[in-house]
Design a protein that fits this description.
Number of strands: 19
Strand order of the largest sheet: 1-2-3-4-5-6-7
Helix content: 10-25%
CATH superfamily of the largest domain: CAP
Distance between the termini: 43 Å
CATH topology of the largest domain: Pathogenesis-related Protein p14a
CATH architecture of the largest domain: 3-Layer(aba) Sandwich
């Protein structure tokens, strides 16, 4: 007991509580620091005025370590982050993602209910369009993008004509020929939608089509993941859905968002908690670099995925991949992607299988980068599925 007391006294002598104030004298933050002046303990920060909490966080040896809670100017918690030794592991708590998805569904249903009737009488019912739009918004929210994508009536009209022309010719075609009996006006709309959209066949619903476009990992699409990358284009402001028979279309090549969210890089699956409803065992992983932050050379980039145990420590070697490629010619504003997928077999003996399941965690590591400014030379992120 005497030994423990001596340690506690020594620790208290080494630690010091520091308070910082705003220019008006109100309290800005309090934090415990060690003898070197490094933050080492609990930190509380306040909004100007010193009454409403802005942040509560834990620090160790000068870096964040543990939970960081962020509050708005009314004192409502808006984010809960998990840090380990200065590395952001979970940008949001799992509960916050669940709440965000539910809120997106409510807001999207309310928004679509305010829209006028579609121009084309054959358009999907508003409830179906709302479900598909909410799903798209959820994917974008998960990836840290602006998710308030709107339904443009012109895009919706053209997408419906696009779906109808695919039904008329009986196949997917981004550049369909004009069927007999079609007016020039309707054909122009259909052709524009097919040339600026994602197309699907056999999805069964618009919402399922959104999932198919985000999967995009079949043999004919995994090389570019073009459908997915258009859905995650930071510049997208509006879209439009169409469905006819077994064919679905989204007018996806919109780039009218005036101030898209700033990203140094974009990945799917993204960093943090990811619901298994939005990712699957055979989905490809991809990362796209912002050319403003990186000199992009896809040939030098490496992309590895490691299994992690419950302590988020690597529990095996990098997974053997059954796809390892890149694409650098288009699709969204970044126009580059490094694409990999863990193999279902051929893994080393004793290697944990790659499974998208509850509490399964993985670490992605991307190297061989040429950053500009303060962009990292190596990009790493942790994904935990639930």
């Amino acid at each position: 007991m005497r030994f423990v007391l001596i340690l506690l006294v020594a620790a208290s002598l080494a630690a010091e509580s520091v308070t910082e104030n705003y220019p008006d004298g109100s309290k800005s933050l309090t934090v415990t620091v060690d003898k070197e002046g490094r933050r080492n303990g609990a930190l509380t920060a306040w909004w100007p005025g010193g009454k409403i909490v802005k942040e509560k966080s834990k620090w160790d040896d000068g870096v964040r370590h543990g939970l960081t809670q962020i509050f708005d100017e009314k004192g409502k918690q808006v984010r809960e982050e998990t840090w380990i030794k200065g590395r952001l592991i979970y940008p949001r708590a799992q509960a916050q993602i669940i709440d965000a998805f539910a809120r997106i569904e409510r807001e999207t249903q309310a928004y679509v209910a305010t829209l006028p009737k579609p121009i084309n009488p054959g358009s999907a019912p508003p409830a179906d369009q709302a479900q598909a739009l909410a799903r798209l918004r959820q994917y974008r929210n998960l990836c840290g993008l602006d998710h308030d994508v709107l339904l443009d009536p012109t895009y919706t009209d053209e997408a419906q004509e696009g779906a109808e022309i695919l039904a008329a010719i009986g196949k997917l075609d981004h550049h369909p020929s004009k069927p007999a009996g079609w007016s020039d006006a309707d054909y122009a709309k259909a052709k524009n939608a097919c040339g600026h959209g994602n197309l699907a066949m056999g999805a069964g619903s618009l919402t399922r089509a959104v999932d198919m476009w985000m999967d995009d990992s079949d043999a004919s699409n995994i090389g570019a993941l073009g459908h997915r990358r258009w859905m995650l284009n930071p510049e997208m402001q509006s879209c439009g859905f169409g469905i006819s028979g077994k064919f679905q279309v989204i007018w996806a090549h919109d780039d009218k968002r005036s101030k898209p969210v700033r990203q140094q890089w974009q990945a799917f699956p993204p960093s943090g908690f990811v619901p298994s409803s939005h990712f699957g065992d055979r989905y490809a992983w991809h990362i796209s670099l912002n050319p403003a932050d990186y000199s992009v050379d896809l040939k030098t980039m490496t992309f590895q995925i490691f299994p992690l145990d419950q302590r988020l420590v690597r529990s095996g070697a990098a997974y053997v991949l059954d796809h390892d490629g890149s694409e650098g010619s288009g699709y969204g504003c970044y126009k580059n992607a490094r694409i990999v997928r863990p193999a279902q077999d051929k893994q080393p003996k004793g290697q944990p299988p790659f499974v998208v399941g509850k509490s399964r965690s993985y670490e992605a590591v991307v190297g061989g980068l040429s950053p500009k400014g303060d962009a990292p030379k190596e990009i790493t992120w942790v994904v935990t599925f639930y």
